Amino acid sequence: MGVNRDGTLKGYSLDVLSNTGAYASHGHSIASAGGNKVAYLYPRCAYAYSSKTCYTNLPSAGAMRGYGAPQVVFAVESMLDDAATALGIDPVEIRLRNAAREGDANRSRANVFTAQGCRSVLKRPENL
């Protein structure tokens, strides 16, 4: 993850290895979906995403909720927490600086954001 001293996210790279169990089932599509979904969070920076699935002797896995998002979002948010700590910036503030804004384009799909849900949720604790 690359971050400027002011907390502006410049880019990040994710290399995902997905355990799909003994059969293909959903492992491949879960790994692919994660790459598309994580692009929505911080669309104004560079990002690279690669994923591989591997067959193991474990039971087949599937997705319940968030289909591929929880794993990769956890990784990105953990890296962002580490960056905020290293820079001495509040973790909520670094997210507000970089979160998707209305009018931002999503790189993985041909659509534009029409709402600022992430930013409004991050600001909510300030008003309590």
From TrEMBL:
SUPFAM superfamilies: Molybdenum cofactor-binding domain (SSF56003)
Superkingdom to which the source organism belongs: Bacteria
Enzyme class: oxidoreductase
Keywords: Molybdenum, Oxidoreductase
One family name in Pfam for this protein: MoCoBD_1
EC numbers for this chain: 1.17.1.4, 1.17.1.5
Cited InterPro entries: Ald_Oxase/xanthine_DH-like, AldOxase/xan_DH_MoCoBD1, AldOxase/xan_DH_Mopterin-bd_sf
Aldehyde oxidase/xanthine dehydrogenase first molybdopterin binding domain location: 1-99
A GO MF term: nicotinate dehydrogenase activity
Family: Belongs to the xanthine dehydrogenase family.
Protein name (record): Xanthine dehydrogenase subunit XdhA
Organism: Escherichia coli
Gene: ndhL_2
